[in-house]
Amino acid sequence: MKVRDIAPLGIRIPPEIKEKLKEKAKEEGRSLNSEIVQRLIRSLKS
């Protein structure tokens, strides 16, 4: 996927969820954005 094909999306989430996502992203060696995208992909497959 090319960068120009990725649509920006601003969302509001509770700070505690953001912190948990940041922790998980760090554990996986990913950016926060990549962590969120991967989790969305997994949730949409089920």
From TrEMBL:
<protein>
    <submittedName>
        <fullName>Arc family DNA-binding protein</fullName>
    </submittedName>
</protein>
<dbReference type="GO" id="GO:0006355">
    <property type="term" value="P:regulation of DNA-templated transcription"/>
</dbReference>
<feature type="domain" description="Arc-like DNA binding">
    <location>
        <begin position="11"/>
        <end position="45"/>
    </location>
</feature>
<dbReference type="InterPro" id="IPR010985">
    <property type="entry name" value="Ribbon_hlx_hlx"/>
</dbReference>
<dbReference type="InterPro" id="IPR013321">
    <property type="entry name" value="Arc_rbn_hlx_hlx"/>
</dbReference>
<dbReference type="Pfam" id="PF03869">
    <property type="entry name" value="Arc"/>
</dbReference>
<dbReference type="GO" id="GO:0043565">
    <property type="term" value="F:sequence-specific DNA binding"/>
</dbReference>
<dbReference type="InterPro" id="IPR005569">
    <property type="entry name" value="Arc_DNA-bd_dom"/>
</dbReference>
<keyword id="KW-0238">DNA-binding</keyword>
